[in-house]
Amino acid sequence: MFDKKKWYEEHKEHNKEYFKKYNKERHQKLKNNPEAKRKRKETRKEADIKYRHNPKHKREKRKWDKKYWQKNRRDSEYKRKKKEYNKKRREKYKDKLDEQCKRYRDNNKDKRRETRKNYAKKHPEVIRKHCRKRRAMKNNIIETFSDKEWLQALKNTFGVCPRCNKYVGISKLSLDHTHPISKAVQGQIYTIDDVQPLCNSCNSKKNNKIENNMEVK
Ligand SMILES: [Zn+2]
Fold this sequence. Notes:
Distance between the termini: 89 Å
CATH class of the domain at 140-206: Mainly Alpha
Radius of gyration: 31 Å
CATH architecture of the domain at 140-206: Orthogonal Bundle
Strand order of the largest sheet: 1-3
Shape: elongated
Structural class: mainly alpha
Bound molecules: zinc ion
Helix content: 55-70%
Number of strands: 4
């Protein structure tokens, strides 16, 4: 039986040369012949309606593209090529793409909000990390403890606020800096021992007062 793939592999170089020449010649021909150019444009249009804008064909193509991507996504050569291609494309159509993105954002505000919400629910650790980074950057402080350490500190309370000894549940306890960040010097380091889980009411009562053990009742 005729092996299409094998034939293609064997004639790859030859075909490449051939089509290059063919396309060049055709391009020259079309350039000098406005009638042929118009005709070609029309055939293209017809083909577009038949294939590119055909929902069935679109669906099939998307399926095929996905399959191809799944097969090749770990391939380094494919990754490199794709990256290069995307970069070129972004540069070429920058204005158009920017506008497209903006339009999508404006038209899908609710959808985007929903997606963000779902993501935050699914990945609380990512959100916590992000919050911590933001807090540290905003206040020019350095937080050296990890997410895991903070989670452990939360677990150790069993949901009980260490200040008022009321049970509020782990999810209701929020991070409090023993030495308030509003009074921290630039670049002050906060370790896990410098933060504590407090309930919301204690956290707001404490305000900016510097905690010392004598004050705790
Ligand atoms: Zn409390």
